[in-house]
Write a structure and sequence with these properties.
This protein has about 220 residues and is α+β, with helices and mostly antiparallel strands. About 50% of the residues lie in helices and about 15% in strands. The longest helix is centred in the first third of the chain and has 32 residues.
């Protein structure tokens, strides 16, 4: 009975969020049609918030049925819809590329990141030799679509990086204490929103800065992924 109650509780909450989404989508369309884009922007942000909450609830719902394969099947859905690119660069640096900007530090943002990042890292290292960087710099490179208004860009301390740092540290760092791992944050402009996370040996960090500068094309308008 307890699991059934949990199932219905999540379902009821998801249904409420879907109603909010439908209402806000209608409002956004009306505001767009009347040319009131500042208001459309504000309501679309609220719509995005309800969408994120609903996505989290939709992932939990099958698991709450207690079917034995539910968790793995939900993971497979996420694999197909949230591609995470993980690789070692030609320089030997570890890199994770996420197909969107990291969310703000809000309720459920940590669960959202854990739900797709940990399984992706586990899959990668099931096929690659494990690695441990003894003394490294953990780099967060936030790339914003250059068409974004300046006011939509966020301060680095308002971005959910701790959960990503914990996940990456678990898989590739010998120790994530300040003695053995430093953090570096930077932003750039590109053709789309995405986030890159690098783990670079401390001695290679000056080289990474040079490489990062060369990611901009000769016209100074595009950053490569």
């Amino acid at each position: 009975m307890k699991s059934l109650n949990a199932f219905l509780q999540v379902l009821n909450s998801a249904e409420q969020n879907i109603k909010h989404m439908a209402s806000d989508a209608k409002i956004v369309r009306q505001l767009n049609d009347s040319g009131r884009m500042d208001e459309a922007y504000a309501v679309s942000l609220r719509l995005a918030k309800y969408a994120e909450r609903t996505a989290l609830q939709a992932r939990v719902l099958p698991v709450n049925t207690n079917r034995p394969m539910a968790f793995r099947e939900v993971e497979e859905i996420m694999e197909n819809n949230i591609p995470v690119d993980i690789e070692f660069t030609a320089e030997g640096w570890f890199r994770v590329s996420l197909p969107a900007l990291l969310p703000k530090k809000e309720f459920n943002s940590r669960n959202y990141i854990r739900a797709y990042l940990y399984p992706a890292l586990q899959r990668f290292f099931s096929e690659h030799e494990p690695v441990r960087y003894e003394d490294a710099v953990l780099i967060f490179r936030h790339v914003y679509n250059r068409d974004r208004p300046e006011r939509q860009k966020r301060d680095h301390d308002n971005i959910e990086v701790n959960t990503v740092a914990d996940a990456v540290a678990l898989f590739v760092l010998a120790d994530d204490s300040p003695t053995f791992c430093s953090h570096y944050y930077c932003s750039a402009e590109g053709n789309a929103d995405y986030t890159q996370v690098y783990v670079v040996p401390r001695g290679d960090f000056p080289q990474w800065l040079l490489v990062e500068a060369l990611m901009e094309d000769s016209a100074g308008r595009k950053y490569a992924v």
